Amino acid sequence: MGESAVSFGQRVELARRHFFREGKRPDGLIPEMVIRSWERSRELGLGTGDRRVFNPVARHEKSLIEERCRPLIASALPEMEKLHLSLGHAGWALACIDMEGIVVSSVCGSGIEARELASIFQVGRNVSEAAVGTNGPGCSLTEGRPMVVRAAEHFLDEVRPFSCAAVPLFGPSGALVGVLDATRMGHGEPVTILEPLGIAARAIENRMLAELQGALTMGFHYRPDLLDTPLEGVVVFAEDGTLLGANQSARQLLGLGAAEAGRERFETLFDCPPETFRRALAGRLDKGVLRSDGGLRFDARFQAMRPGAMLAGLREGAQRIHALAARPVLPAQAGQAAGSGDAIGFDPVAGQALHVARRAFERDIPVLINGETGTGKEVLARRLHDDSSRSAGPFVAINCSSLPAGLIESEFFGYEDGAFTGGRRGGALGKFELARGGTLFLDEIGDMPMELQGRLLRVLQERSFSRLGGARQIVFDARVVAATHRRLETLVAEGRFREDLYYRIKGVRVSLPALRERGDRAVLIDALLAREAGEGDVPMLSPEARHVLMHYRWPGNIRQLGHVLRLALTLAEGEEEIGLQHFPEELLTDFDDALALRAAPLRGSEVCLRDIELEAVRAAMARNAGNVSATARSLGVARATLYRKLKLLGLA
Ligand SMILES: Nc1ncnc2c1ncn2[C@@H]1O[C@H](COP(=O)(O)OP(=O)(O)OP(=O)(O)O)[C@@H](O)[C@H]1O
Predict the structure, then answer these.
(1) Fewer CB within 10 A of the end CB, N or C, for the chain?
(2) What are the residue boundaries of the Sigma-54 factor interaction domain, all occurrences included (predicted)?
(3) What is the pLDDT of residue 594?
(4) Distance (Å) from CA 343 to ligand 1 centroid
(5) pLDDT category, 516, cuts 50, 70, 90?
(6) 377 close to ligand 1 (CB < 6 Angstrom)
């Protein structure tokens, strides 16, 4: 890099003086991302002399985290160990950090320095920006980009002896799920570790993809020598050709945005004869040359999930379900009034989303929720409100896309008496005022007209506004949650959304996975069925019906699932079982194999395995008259395990 240690140190010290003593922005002295992070750290109320890093981590918290993040740890740890070994004795500690900034796993080596690093990267340690100010992993999480933070670029004096580099980790749907960090003592050149760190991150992402239960995995690249390396593009498809997940390389090669799984299909991504997919799926094609619909030529390798492999996958899948079930994130509360506490879910991504959002929200950091229609954005927003210290205040939702242009301003700001003809006598309160002391939910924020975006930004910056036709400044006292199904970055790039507003509302961004990507579909189906059945008996689902529910594309997500189940319950009234005949046609036309399913019911699918287990629990509980200890003994499992299963059944 050709930069002497002295000049680096001097520049940072100068930057610190400008920023901390003289209140000036140290533009050009240190990287822009570091300046932004200093600003955020200061806004969060941190002081440079604070001691926040070496607090003890509670032991029970550690085991909870290890349980909760098992899937992420399982993918990350082997790659971290490999990388650590290849770095030899260079003194690096590696850590995997979740969306909340919590260390979930680390590899530190031995020696005195390593011991100090190991103490920082204990499982359970919070290294988010909010907790410890500017640092590599915290900042990388906030920005969603690789980050290097050296020595005095850290906000807290306490961590100035260290330098670190961190790269984001993206899950199969393209959503940020955490970061991989490398830290060592001194202000050396952590830049040099970015590349191996990035490769390890890609390998971790590929492991997460391999966990998806797809029917066909395809690796591809325009450079044949990169096939079968962590840099290849990897896409996973369902049996019907729907894209289930893609790694970052694949997203770049194919020009895919995040969360486009489910919307894309093999034949829309690649320009090739239809039998290619079918042959690959049947295991009759393991290599090939494909063209993207943009005309790029790729070498590809295919790996079909064969029946034998399927069985092994099934077993693993069952184990994974146990791991996930062990961490109910939004407890099932079937039967409650829709719209507030009715969220159900054991999905790791959705669960992490809630976790992060909750913390940010409580610290008054605006939360931006991304997700397709019907994924539960409003449910999450209400949930945040209900769980917060402001739950006694109002929850005011406003849909920014559905308001007629002329009405928006008065809806937002209210108006004074006589502000315009036809206005109500005495004026009216706007949503900003109605939300006082509570939460303002800005739905479909991506569709907000430009001119209003400027006014909203001003309110958020100044925390005050005035009614139309009035001069008095009214304090804006509400927490803000915004939601959109659009990619705001794209709108910003196209000039259709203000960048400054984007950064203002995106304090923390959480992405809700599409239903077809959720690992807890089976649980959701059962819980929604119970919720829709209300007081009535809950009928069984035939194995074919369950198969279709599990594998349908669900463009309308959880909302659509709810509608389908409600309809099926009505149609199946008086019958013991819900079958394919109770589903709307579009669910079946989507299925190439629906007719085959009708003709030859399938048994022994993953779902059935789980059902059998839950059925056994149900029966044992009945035999033991609801006595948990006796039931656990008769099933040969620990009481804690049984409690988890009971929760799954909604019997806890
Ligand atoms: N986790 C969940 N558990 C149970 N029901 C859910 C869950 N998430 C969403 N739902 C149900 O799905 C429906 C849609 O949820 P919601 O309105 O929050 O979605 P949304 O993402 O805001 O949709 P849109 O973008 O169309 O406004 C609601 O009926 C809600 O009760």
Answers:
(1) N
(2) 343-570
(3) 45
(4) 8
(5) confident
(6) yes
Ligand 1 atom having least distance to the Cα of 382? 18
- Assess whether the C-beta atom of 136 lies below 6 angstroms from ligand 1: no
Q: Whose CA is nearest to atom 23 of ligand 1?
A: 374
- pLDDT confidence bin for 307, thresholds 50/70/90: very low
Candidate from 375, 484, 511, 517 with most ligand 1 atoms within 8 A of CB, to mutate:
375
In this structure, what is the dihedral angle of CA atoms 127, 173, 201, 108, given to the nearest 10 degrees? 40
User: Cα angle at 277 between 592 and 273, to 5 degrees?
Assistant: 105
Q: According to the model, what pLDDT value does residue 652 have?
A: 60
Q: Determine if ligand 1 sits within 6 Å of the CB of residue 344.
A: yes
Distance 378 CA to ligand 1 centre (A): 6
Does 517-649 match 5-208 at the fold level?
no
Which is it for strands 540-541 and 577-578: parallel, antiparallel or unpaired? parallel
Nearest-CA neighbor of 165 among 192, 147, 186, 138? 147
Which helix (H) or strand (E) is 162 found in, with range? Answer: strand 162-170
Q: For a substitution probing ligand 1, which of 379, 398, 517 has the most ligand atoms within 8 Å of its CB?
A: 379
Q: Which of 333, 347, 378 to mutate to test the pocket of ligand 1 (most atoms within 8 A of CB)?
A: 378
pLDDT band at 651 (very low <50, low <70, confident <90, very high): low
The model's pTM is 0.48
Over residues 309-326, the pLDDT tens digits come to 333 333 333 233 222 222
Which range in 14-18, 173-177, 238-242 is most confidently predicted, on average pLDDT? 14-18
Query: Architecture of domain 5-208 in CATH?
Result: 2-Layer Sandwich (3.30)
Indicate whether 10 pLDDT > 80. Answer: yes
Classify domain 348-511 at the CATH superfamily level.
P-loop containing nucleotide triphosphate hydrolases (3.40.50.300)
DSSP state of 615: H
- Calculate how far, in angstroms, residue 22's C-alpha sits from the geometric centre of ligand 1: 49
Mean pLDDT, residues 588-608 taken together = 48
**Token pair recorded at residue 315:** 């077993």
Shortest-distance atom of ligand 1 to CA 375:
21
Do 171 and 205 touch, CB atoms closer than 8 A?
yes
559 in contact with ligand 1, CB cutoff 6 A: yes
CB 121 within 8 A of CB 108: yes
Does the pLDDT value for residue 137 go beyond 90?
yes
pLDDT at residue 152 in the model: 94
Query: Is 617's pLDDT higher than 80?
Result: no
Atom of ligand 1 nearest to the CA of 379: 18
Q: Could you give the angle at which helices 307-325 and 606-623 cross, rounded to 10 degrees? A: 50
Atom from ligand 1 closest to the CA of residue 380 = 18
The yes or no reply on domain 212-308 and CATH 3.30.450 is: yes
Q: Which atom of ligand 1 is nearest to the CA of 528?
A: 4
CATH number for region 517-649: 1.10.8.60
For the segment 158-201, what is each residue's pLDDT rounded down to a tens digit? Answer: 999 999 999 999 988 888 899 999 999 987 766 678 888 998 99
Distance 321 CA to ligand 1 centre (A): 23
Residue 334: pLDDT band by 50, 70, 90 thresholds? very low
Helical pair 377-386 and 348-362, crossing angle rounded to 10 deg: 50
Residue whose entry in the numeric block shows the structure tokens 């009216």: 428
So where are the chain's domains? 5-208, 212-308, 348-511, 517-649
